[in-house]
Specification:
The protein has a single domain, classed as Jelly Rolls (Sandwich), CATH 2.60.120.620. It has 268 residues and is α+β, with helices and mostly antiparallel strands. The protein has helices spanning 13-22, 33-45, 60-66, 68-73, 77-98, 101-111, 142-145, 202-205; strands at 24-27, 115-123, 153-158, 169-171, 183-184, 199-200, 211-212, 220-224, 229-231, 242-249, 265-266. It is built from eight helices and eleven strands. The strands form three sheets. Strands 1-8-3-10-2-11 form a six-stranded antiparallel beta sheet. The chain is 29% helix and 17% strand. Bound molecules: fe (ii) ion (FE2). Fe (ii) ion (FE2) binds next to loops. Residues 139, 141, 229 line the site of fe (ii) ion.
Amino acid sequence: MTKKFQENTIFSKDNFEKYWNDGFIIIKDMLSPEICEYSNSLARIVADDDYGQIMHLHREEYLISQSSKKIESLNNLNEKVLFIKKIKQISKHYEELLKNPDITNYLDWLYSRQMTGLLTNIFFKEPGTKYSNQEWLPHQDNNYLSNENGLYVTVNVAFNYMSEKNGGLFLFPGSHKLGNLDSEKKISYREKDGKPGNKVKEVDIKHIKPVACELKKGDVLFMHGLCVHKSSNNNSNDPRPLLSLGYIPYGEKFDPGFNSKREVKFLN
Ligand SMILES: [Fe+2]
């Protein structure tokens, strides 16, 4: 089957080649600023005091489990019930975002496979909290799921601008061609100290110069699951809320994870 290209659109041959050569592509303004601001405001409702990573915003049971302290601190039954109602609304909203047709159509086009949704995680890097200093070590996202074909994909949505200044990502172009790399396992969810990210060996990537990834609100970064990336800490006064949506082609095997219990979500 020959690939369909539409020049001067996001479905161009250049974009397709860029994605498969570099292992990533940024699509500007894919989502509106309004949807980003609204989604961010919903996520902040369920954030803890440190604005730690929230896992699986699209799954009610995960939001309840990660907000247990907050729920416990509410004054009466009525407030608790209203909060749970809000959680239902938030998880529904994020399920819709995971199924966003602009994103999923683009993924289908890039991979020529039927994609399924796996995760919706947010990283706030909120100034003044311990996680603002969170520097991720160079890692491959596919490593967490161990898909042997490296077909996991991360779609990062910037809810605010993202640059080197506020804890942005650095990407290693072409590193996805190295395949699944050996790594050192690190705690990568609400870690107590140290730096998260299942670190790949420096020797494997030392020939590649990382590039800073600049996004503005609504820009979307499509990143191959084997593309090595890292991030800086946030020394600025600006939060860096970044939503990571995870996808994998239907039928591909993956490790669900002990805490994350990833489950396939059909997108249409
Ligand atoms: Fe990552």
